[in-house]
Design goal:
The protein is of the alpha/beta class. 29% of the residues lie in helices and 19% in strands. The relative contact order is 0.07.
Length: 347
């Protein structure tokens, strides 16, 4: 099925499709075939113990990596496909798919990991179509679980049309879409008791669309991971516009305007509660307001983009003190108070 992360022993062609020639469709069209949907349905139903084997695999992975200091945890399944009922996911979000298939499977994978690793984050992803459709998602909390993550994706359909060369596509329409997806992710994460992460977005050279997504993420204080750094010959990477280089073998071919939008000034860690922050990619100006928590010993740490501050920058704070370490600013406060931070690039 395109080599998408499933070992050969697990990709058993179901009857009656096994009697017919395989249809070699690329990603993502292969998802929509009855055969692939049936394979997913068999997985959700644990036919032949396939889901049990998957959970055992995650237990082995966790046992190997549980002490890796730079691990961000375990993402159990990328963009899980609902199965034969996928059209329902386009209409109302397919709540029954979550309650009867996704939630039980993800819980099984979570429990397998927790047998050997009680601490690292276990990430759940919503069904695949939620990345490109404005609809709800239906994961629930897991009793007693304190380190659950919601790994979600954000792909406005207008961006794909523009990337495909469709004329007169206005990516300004993506602002409403990404606002909807951000709000849904925050709501879903709160229901789950999970930390949210926009783990895929972008996949385009369209600067307007990238700016919209990044700005809205800042407004929601949403962490993110851009797709993608390079092409990597990944079957899911449709074109060269998704990466950061015109020639992956030559780092000097970086797409500078795109990089400027992505390398942003932002708070990496806040010793308190974020209230608001804003970054201007044109001027490099950054403002942040937060309520300090004096019980936290570590400082608030802000990364300052060197692309908009090539000659250094000035920092002002309304309270507390600021210390500059290269491209980082540490702000400390000994009192529970609201602190306003302004960072301005030097000319």
């Amino acid at each position: 099925y395109g080599g998408e992360g499933v070992p050969a022993w697990a990709a058993k062609r179901p009857f009656p499709f096994s009697l017919l020639p395989w249809i070699p469709l690329p990603f993502p069209e292969g998802y929509w075939t009855p055969e692939v949907s049936t394979v997913f349905d068999n997985f959700w139903a644990n036919r032949g113990g396939i889901q049990d084997s998957w959970a055992t695999y995650w237990k082995l992975v966790a046992a190997h990596y549980k002490d890796q200091p730079y691990s961000m945890g375990y993402d159990l399944m990328n963009e899980p496909w609902a199965g034969i009922e996928w059209p329902a996911c386009m209409l109302g979000g397919c709540a029954a798919t979550y309650s009867q298939e996704l939630q039980p499977a993800m819980t099984k994978g979570l429990q397998a990991v927790r047998q050997v690793d009680p601490d690292n984050i276990v990430w759940w992803e919503p069904q695949q179509l939620s990345a490109g459709i404005q609809g709800p998602t239906f994961y629930k909390a897991v009793t007693g679980e304190a380190n659950l993550g919601l790994s979600w994706h954000n792909y406005c359909f207008a961006v794909f049309l523009a990337s495909a060369g469709v004329p007169l596509v206005n990516t300004d329409s993506c602002r409403g879409f990404t606002n909807n997806r951000e709000d849904n992710a925050l709501k879903q994460a709160a229901t789950m008791g999970a930390v949210p992460l926009m783990s895929e977005w972008g996949a385009t050279d369209n600067l307007n669309a990238l700016g919209i997504d990044a700005d809205v993420a800042d407004q929601r204080q949403m962490g993110w991971m851009y797709w993608a750094y390079k092409h990597w010959d990944d079957p899911t990477t449709a074109d060269d516009a998704q990466g950061l280089f015109t020639d992956d073998a030559d780092l000097s071919t970086v797409k500078a305007d795109k990089l400027r939008l992505l390398v942003r000034t932002y708070p990496q860690a806040t010793a308190g509660t974020d209230l608001t922050y804003d970054y201007d990619t044109t001027t490099g100006d950054f403002t942040m307001s937060y309520r300090a928590d004096p019980t936290i010993a570590a400082p608030t740490r802000i990364f300052v983009s060197p692309l908009t501050s090539p000659h250094g920058f000035d920092v002002t704070t309304s309270a507390g003190s600021a210390t500059v370490h290269g491209s980082y600013v540490d702000v400390t406060s000994g009192a529970a108070q609201e602190i306003h931070v302004t960072i301005t690039p030097r000319p």
